Amino acid sequence: MPTAIAWNASDALIVDASVWVSAADASDALSAPSRSFLTTVARQRTPIVLPAIARLEVACALTRRLHDARRGRKLAERLLQSPLITEIPLDAPLLAAALTQGTKSFLRAGDAFYAAVARNGGGTLIAWDDELVRRAGAMTPEAWLVKYGGD
Predict the structure, then answer these.
(1) How would you write the chain as a 3-class SS string?
(2) What is the pLDDT of residues 123-142, one digit of tens each?
(3) What is the rounded CA–CA span in Å between residue 80 and residue 76?
(4) Total number of domains constituting the chain
């Protein structure tokens, strides 16, 4: 199985679906800090690298919350349309890296993709997901804002 990693995310953020979904849902308790984080990232023009599964994960989560497939997909597309975002395809090297990272860190399959992109590309993983914080070294959006949010 291929193990070469074809991306470089050393100065990028890898933003877990939990942040995008919280930002999109004003009723979510973490919506305001998620929006503040994403606004700061955009203002600073910080690159974001996402596994391609992020689009699916965000769209499905929003669809479930909204109980509306069309609105969920459209909202996910709007959230992820930034030119600052680069998507990593779900190819053999990413699958191999996610398998390694996921089993090593006892992660859920979806989370393993974000952790693999961060680990193998060198970027900073951002998530509200406690397992990603504890097991994969992710920072919460609030922690990132405290450390890097100043201009």
Answers:
(1) CCCCCCCCCCCCEEECHHHHHHHHCCCCCCHHHHHHHHHHHHHHCCCEEEECHHHHHHHHHHHHHHCCHHHHHHHHHHHCCCCCEEEECCCHHHHHHHHHHHHHHCCCHHHHHHHHHHHHHCCEEECCCHHHHHHHCCECHHHHHHHHCCC
(2) 999 999 999 999 999 999 99
(3) 6
(4) 1
Domain of residue 51, CATH code: 3.40.50.1010
Classify residue 3: in a domain, yes or no.
Answer: no
- Residues sharing a CB contact under 8 Å with residue 5, sequence separation 6 or more, in sequence order: 93, 94, 97, 120, 121
Q: Which domain holds residue 29?
A: 13-148
Q: What is the pLDDT of residues 54-96, one digit of tens each?
A: 999 999 999 999 999 999 999 999 999 999 999 999 999 999 9
Q: What are phi and psi of 109, to 5 degrees?
A: -55, -50
pTM of the model: 0.92
